[in-house]
Amino acid sequence: MRASRLGNRAGIATAVDAIVAQELMDPEIASYFYFQVTPGSNGMPPVNGHPSVAQLKSCLVNQLANAAGGPEAYPGAPADNMGWQCRNMADSHRALRIPGSVFDRFVMIAAGVLTTAGVSAADIAVIGGVLNSTRTAIVDPARDGGAFMPPTDASAGGG
Ligand code: HEM
């Protein structure tokens, strides 16, 4: 798939903004963005070892643009993502312990946003394929649903 089919990098960034905003409307999905919204950590990154929302959106744009055949590199370098070194999908989601049902809802919400935005069914299928290809790396098979389970010591930055 060429990047132009997705409406180039600016189009991907606009889509990622809309997708993340919609994902955060779902309280259960939003609970997983714990390290981005933890009170008392107003800087960037919000908690040591975790990206800010802006940084993770930048990672996601580069990842999708790369998959779309654009010149972007993933995981690239910190300079590509507001100082954050993007990680692979297993490393960046391990501490979150995301259930499969939550993952699947995340992908459904993304597809819904793209449909509303007028993205073609063919492009949505390609993006859905990219998202779904990360399922094994991201999902914790030991969980069957529910919200984020916060670490007992958030200052440790782990989970
Ligand atoms: C559907 C496929 C998904 C893709 C392609 C994806 C992609 C990404 C990318 C590129 C990053 C930044 C990498 C990094 O942190 O270094 C990231 C981080 C993150 N993602 Fe995902 N993600 C997906 C699913 C999900 C789901 C289902 C959730 C929550 C329900 C989620 C929540 C997060 C959070 C909270 C972070 C920040 C991690 C941290 O604080 O350390 N992601 N994701």
Short description:
The protein is mostly helical and 159 residues long. The protein is 49% helix and 0% strand.
Gross geometry: globular
Q: How would a crystallographer describe the biggest sheet?
A: none
Percent in strands = under 5%
Number of helices: 8
In N-to-C order, the SSE pattern is: HHHHHHHH
Q: Residue share in helices?
A: 40-55%
Low-confidence stretches: 40-45
What's the CATH class label?
Mainly Alpha
Q: What is the CA–CA distance across the termini?
A: 36 Å
CATH topology: Globin-like
Bound molecules: protoporphyrin IX containing FE
CATH fourth-tier homologous superfamily: Globins
Please tell me the total number of domains. 1
Structural class, please?
Answer: mainly alpha
SS elements, strand count: 0
| Rounded mean pLDDT score | 87
Provide a descriptive summary of the structure in words.
With about 160 residues, the protein is mostly helical. The chain has a single domain (about 5-150), classed as Globin-like, CATH 1.10.490.10. About 50% of the residues lie in helices and about 0% in strands. The protein contains 8 helices and no strands. It has helices at about 10-25, 25-30, 35, 55-65, 90-95, 100-115, 120-130, 135-140. The longest helix is centred in the C-terminal third of the chain and has 17 residues, at about 100-115. The radius of gyration is 15 Å and the shape is globular. The termini are far apart. About 25% of the residues are buried. The protein binds protoporphyrin IX containing FE. Protoporphyrin IX containing FE binds near residues 86, 87 and 107.
